[in-house]
Amino acid sequence: MTLQGKTVAFLVAPEGVEQVELTEPWKAVQDAGGTPRLVSTEEGQVQAFNHLDKGDTFPVDATIHDPDQYDALVLPGGVANPDFLRTDPDAVKFVRRFFDEGQPVAAICHAPWTLVEAGVLEGRRLTSWPSLQTDLRNAGAEWVDEEVVVDLTGTSPLVTSRKPDDLAAFNGKIVEVFAS
Q1: Is 111 exposed, middle or buried (0-12, 13-18, 19+ CB in 10 A)?
Q2: Complete DSSP assignment for 106-124
Q3: In the chain, how many domains are there?
Q4: What is the tens place of the pLDDT at every residue in 145-176?
Q5: Are 33 and 59 in contact (CB under 8 A)?
Q6: What is the domain-level CATH number for residue 157?
Q7: Looking at the domain assignment, is residue 2 inside a domain?
Q8: Which residue in 175, 171, 173 sits closest to 20, CA to CA?
Q9: What is the pLDDT of residue 154?
């Protein structure tokens, strides 16, 4: 499967993204021929974390205010990353636009918090880090404890996974769903 000609936005906050949940899906998109773009709320660089320890920094390619067009969206986790994004109305609007346009979205670990705020989970089936299950159910979603879940019931295909240990399955489904 190829993502040739497809541009995938990776939306992250200026600080707090879980590094491996950014870098591994990024590599999967690149390896499938796609073009990943790091999108944030601010220009400059983002600070990644390896759990609670600072990791590497990564240059931002575009902000949520840039008019770039994307074919799909990946929301990496980390606790602080989606917690920041869900409190930024422009970031929430950026995410909601993918659902409004029927484009595929993938979220791992704590990232579905941003989807709760975007109001796009009613009737959807997904997974996440276990501590989010009540929030997701309260948002109208069916939460399940599975390695990777692909939900095709809404306007946008939605791929979700629980944690970094699920990245191999998550990355495989991202490529499969984003390519179709």
Answers
A1: buried
A2: EEETTTHHHHHHHT--TT-
A3: 1
A4: 999 999 999 889 999 999 999 999 999 999 99
A5: no
A6: 3.40.50.880
A7: no
A8: 171
A9: 86
Distances (CA, A) of 21 to 78, 81, 102, 146: 8, 11, 24, 17
**Active site residue ranges:** 109-110
Q: What is the pTM of this model?
A: 0.97
Per-residue model confidence (pLDDT) at position 66: 86
The three-point CA angle 12-18-21 to 5° equals 85
Domain that holds residue 90: 7-179
pLDDT band at 64 (very low <50, low <70, confident <90, very high): very high
Of residues 66 and 86, more confidence is placed in 86
Query: Does residue 68 lie within any of the structural domains?
Result: yes
Alpha helices in the chain (DSSP H): 19-31, 80-85, 89-100, 112-118, 133-138, 167-179
